[in-house]
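Hi P.,

Sorry for the delay on this. The queue was packed all week, but I finally got your sequence through. Input first:
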Amino acid sequence: MAISGNPGQGASSEVVRDINRRIILNLIRTRQPISRADLARLSGLQRSTVSLIVEELIKEHWVLEGPTGRLPRGRRPTFLRLNDERVIVGVVVRPTQTIFALSDVNGKFISQQTMRTPADPKEAIAAIIAGIRPLMESGQGKKMEGIGISLPGRVDHRTGNLLFAPNLGWHNLDLRTPISAATGMDVELENAANACVLAAVWFDRMEAFRNLVAVTVSEGIGVGILMNGQLVRGFHGMAGEFGHVPMDPKGPLCSCGNRGCWEVYASNRAALRYYNESNVAALTFPDLLSLADQGDPKAAQALDSMALYLGRGLRMVVAGLAPERIIVVGDVTRAWHRVGPVIESEVRAQVLPGAVVPQLIPAHEDSMGRMRGTVALVLEKHFGSPQEVLS
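Then the structure:
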């Protein structure tokens, strides 16, 4: 999608330069180390245009020149790479814990720490600020690009407010303003499932897939949607709340206030309820996975029930969105050998005539997928969407 020469009616020279700059940045990011000649060949831009952009990126400390290559004859090429002295603070908020990390622009994590998530939102904001500060101090001497925050709820990107986070009990909360004011940094907020979609596109080399869904399975269920190469947020950022679609209006009470939602049947909490209705709090979901591995038939049955409802809920995702791939994110993927066949069988059983069964991919990193998404969230401001500029 490189633009050179006549940019066409309605496209200013500034827009053209910005598009070409993003193309070069993304090519360096995905192909590093890479020479100027290869950048020109892959982008379709003139070598003089590539050289001007590269020199600008070097001057701004986005790009560094590395070792010199060898050719049979002619001038030796100098290879380019992203400057890993530019860093990003990532924060993943979950109902039980909040994870902090410092990452370079290549998604390599330098340091990480964890704290308990306070139930009170004001206390949580103060604790998040306190958790960010040591990372900023450890990154002194580096260029801090911003803070990315993943949340188990929906964010209104017009206001920056967290609108809907039933598993946290937080509603219509402004996190961006106080955190930005306290740190002096730009703050980007995103739903956890959307963050996982961004991580897949940016760091898992899935930019070739233009219709992609990430399903986060933890205390609740979230769905992040990439359609036609675009992240779908919907009105007020509420797109993707399949976890709160009722499967049985007379079912168990959900944290959103309704009954029988998908997540009350297919989340980690649901599996714990299947195992022991009277004493859920005494057992964690990792404990349940371990019991199943040890041959506990009740734990195995609880996971089978969870998998059955995961597959049934995914039917509506497949029928409504027709994705090429579905990435399943969460601790449950540790038991994919058990739950994967059940989920896949349920999805295949209800595929509409003429539809293609999407590939189901278990993501074994869980919170790191969310964390890498926070890095991508900040980088998008400079790089744009990889699918937009590399397609």
